[in-house]
TrEMBL record:
Domain of life: Bacteria
GO molecular function terms listed in the Swiss-Prot or TrEMBL record: DNA-binding transcription factor activity; sequence-specific DNA binding
Keyword set, alphabetical order: DNA-binding, Transcription, Transcription regulation
Name of this protein: Helix-turn-helix domain-containing protein
Pfam families to which the protein is assigned, alphabetical: HTH_18
Classification via PROSITE patterns: HTH_ARAC_FAMILY_2
InterPro entries: AraC_XylS_family_regulators (IPR050204), Homeodomain-like_sf (IPR009057), HTH_AraC (IPR018060)
The HTH araC/xylS-type domain, residue ranges: 193-291
């Protein structure tokens, strides 16, 4: 990887012994700060609040926070990529959420406080100590794919202790959430496999449900029900996902105009295509191209 290109890691951890004041900063990620020894006066979101060993400061993305140590203070900070955190929340509440875009709004409703201070106590902190230390050690080794699952396991172990202490808002299910598709793992019927194959082989085709049902000799309602049970989404939603997959590949690998790529994968309306792309990926096609082409240019 060349100069200017930096690896993207969903989780990083660092331990610092600080004696001088740390000016308030904000990060585009979720941050957990574990006070392991000493005490400090917080600035920014908690202006004037004292923290001591055994407490954890939890900050949502773009929340300003700094601190002034009262003597030496040891803190371990865990940084969690915002999209990665949203992805975990999506799976945690998969029975309520239809996609990651909805999970973003759900996160704002569930965690209404952008900053929290949790009192774990020193005994609980001692329980976390070996996990925190290992996370810090793995982070210092750089981006190692073979250690990815171990870092996830350590993060989840830490969160399993921390999250029960966090303040949340009671969940109120919307009508859409109450009617969300409940997917269960089961053998996929041949008819569903055939429909999925057709959609993947010809994503640009103007598919109608009646056309797909006719191929597998089922009624439209039967075909839709069988497909949704197998893949957790309707055939039309599945087709949108397939088109987005093709769109992301062409955005990465070609210099074709965004509008032309959209038509190539089957969307004639740029506005509709952009909305579907953002719903599934979380950013616009232009943002996706920019983010995924710049590292490759730097490496070149």
């Amino acid at each position: 990887m060349g100069a200017g290109a930096s690896p993207v890691r969903p989780v990083e951890a660092v331990t610092n012994i600080q004696r001088a004041p740390v000016a308030p900063h904000l990060y585009d990620c979720v941050k957990l700060m574990f006070v392991r020894d000493g005490s400090a006066i917080l600035t920014g979101a908690f202006d004037g609040r004292a923290v001591r060993a055994g407490e954890v400061i939890v900050l949502s993305a773009e929340t300003l926070c700094g601190y002034e140590p009262e003597g030496p203070v040891t803190m371990t900070s865990i940084f969690v990529d915002r999209d990665y955190a949203i992805d975990q929340l999506f799976w945690q509440y998969a029975d309520l959420l239809s996609d990651r875009w909805e999970a973003r709004d759900f996160a704002d409703e569930l965690y209404t406080k952008p900053a929290q201070i949790l009192r774990l106590g020193e005994r609980q902190l001692q329980r976390l100590t070996p996990w925190l230390d290992e996370l810090v050690a793995l982070s210092s080794e750089g981006s190692l794919p073979e250690r990815f699952h171990r870092m996830q396991a350590l993060l989840f172990a830490v969160l399993d202790v921390v999250t029960p202490h966090m303040a949340t808002t009671p969940i109120r299910q919307s009508r859409v959430q109450r009617n969300a598709i409940r997917r269960r793992f089961a053998p996929v019927r041949a008819e569903a496999r055939t429909v999925a194959r057709l959609l993947r082989e010809e994503p640009a085709r103007r598919w109608r449900l009646a056309d797909l049902a006719a191929v597998v000799h089922l009624s439209t309602a039967q075909m839709s029900r069988i497909f949704t049970k197998a893949y957790g989404q309707t055939p039309i939603s599945y087709l949108a996902t397939v088109r987005v997959e093709a769109l992301t590949r062409l955005l990465r690998e070609t210099d074709l105009p965004v509008g032309k790529i959209m038509r190539q994968v089957g969307w004639n309306s740029r506005g509709h295509a952009s909305a579907k792309f953002r719903q599934i990926v979380g950013i616009t096609p232009s943002q996706y191209r920019r983010q995924n082409r710049e590292p490759r240019r730097a490496a070149a």
